Q: What sequence folds into this?
């Protein structure tokens, strides 16, 4: 096997210690046995893949140690190595070892029901900078075992034939995912066949996550759905995401809390921008805060709460909403929902250029009036772009003029 090994070491510069790199790095090419090389790594070692196609499938069974993961990465992110598997029996890449980082791989297309990357490991897996195109199953999944400390970031998923990202077990007992971070991913086009829903990102019952800075376009079902938790200490945070163009559902669906949704931009979705739903009548719609979001021309309204369902500790505050065809901006007044500071932009000029996806407040916009300080503890420290909120924050996801939003990976 054509392997090149380079020793790495500690570096001290100006008296400051930098974190050490891996103990060694092995570099292979497309003609080498990828799976064998990946499973031969010792804790702290890297496998570097030159550009080209590598034969799959592969199951990663050997991992690293806490603070010393094994790393499998592309030599060049501009020419990603591609893991190729055309069969139907298994997934393209299964991860069963702990303390593993996979960075910069391309995967896909795959056959129907064949997942791109499926995580079985209990702890400390990072999937970043990968591209998954034309996956016939779920692009990235962790739905079999309980998992802690999973990070999924800066990945691009396109033309998915099923849900793009799926975390946790449907019953909330067989497995849960904790310490999950899903950030700065770009998901475009999910076209699941009936009866599949076709989510962008799905966080199942009793799992919790931070879902932030993702851009999600043209899913079949919800761009993001969190099902909530029976544990009031297990809270999901959904912030600074853009979701546009769900074909059949809302941009974000909340099936239960605790959950905080803030600084999101939801536009042109078939349902509401953000919909609270008492999923399977579980009674988990409590401890939900929906604040400082921008919702534009979602067909069923801005933020919706089901009639006839009692909720607890739900606040909908300081959202900027433009609707169409008489759809409501927020729920009607009800004793079990705290409503304050929401701005109706349906007939007012609120945004700089919404058709160009510029939702900055324009001069004279009603958004520039100080937001309601009712429930001030829910004011986020920043806005959609990460700009610090002023002492007098404005309603909606964007604090000040920032220009059009780029529909791709967030910088």
A:
């Amino acid at each position: 096997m054509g392997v090149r090994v380079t020793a790495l070491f500690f570096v001290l510069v100006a008296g400051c210690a930098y974190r050490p790199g891996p103990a060694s790095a092995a570099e292979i090419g497309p003609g080498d046995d990828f799976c064998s090389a990946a499973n031969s790594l010792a804790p702290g070692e890297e496998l570097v893949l030159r550009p080209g196609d590598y034969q799959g499938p592969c199951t990663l069974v050997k991992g690293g140690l806490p603070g010393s993961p094994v790393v499998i990465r592309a030599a060049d992110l501009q020419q990603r190595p591609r893991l190729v598997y055309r069969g139907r029996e298994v997934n393209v890449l299964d991860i069963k070892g702990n303390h593993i980082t996979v960075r910069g791989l391309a995967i896909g297309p795959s056959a129907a029901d064949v997942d791109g990357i499926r995580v079985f490991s209990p702890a400390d897996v990072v999937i970043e900078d990968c591209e998954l195109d034309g996956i016939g199953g779920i692009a990235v999944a962790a739905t079999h075992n309980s998992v802690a400390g999973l990070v999924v970031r800066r990945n691009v998923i396109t033309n998915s034939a099923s849900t793009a990202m799926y975390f946790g077990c449907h019953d909330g007992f067989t497995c849960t995912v904790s310490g999950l971070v899903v950030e700065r991913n770009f998901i475009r086009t999910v076209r699941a066949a009936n009866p599949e829903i076709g989510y962008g990102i799905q966080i199942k019952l009793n799992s919790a996550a931070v879902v932030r800075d993702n851009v999600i376009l043209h899913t079949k079902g919800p761009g993001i759905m969190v099902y909530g938790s029976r544990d009031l200490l297990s809270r999901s945070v959904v912030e600074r995401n853009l979701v546009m163009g769900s074909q059949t559902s809302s941009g974000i669906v909340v099936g239960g809390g605790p959950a905080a949704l803030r600084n999101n931009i939801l536009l042109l979705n078939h349902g509401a921008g953000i919909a609270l739903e008492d999923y399977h009548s579980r009674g988990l719609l409590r401890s939900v805060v929906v604040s400082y979001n921008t919702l534009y021309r979602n067909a069923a309204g801005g933020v919706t709460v089901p009639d006839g369902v009692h909720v607890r500790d739900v606040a909908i505050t300081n959202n900027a909403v433009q609707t169409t065809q008489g759809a409501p901006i927020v729920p009607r007044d009800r004793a079990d929902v705290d409503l304050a500071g929401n701005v109706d932009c349906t007939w007012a000029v609120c945004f700089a250029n919404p058709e160009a996806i510029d939702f900055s407040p324009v001069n004279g916009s009603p958004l520039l009036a100080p937001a309601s300080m009712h429930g001030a503890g829910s004011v986020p420290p920043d806005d959609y772009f990460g700009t610090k909120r002023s002492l007098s924050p404005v309603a909606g996801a964007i604090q000040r003029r920032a220009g059009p939003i780029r529909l791709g990976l967030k910088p």
About this structure: Residues 1-20 have pLDDT under 50 and may be disordered. The two ends are 38 Å apart (CA to CA). Residues 30 and 54 are 5 Å apart (CA to CA).
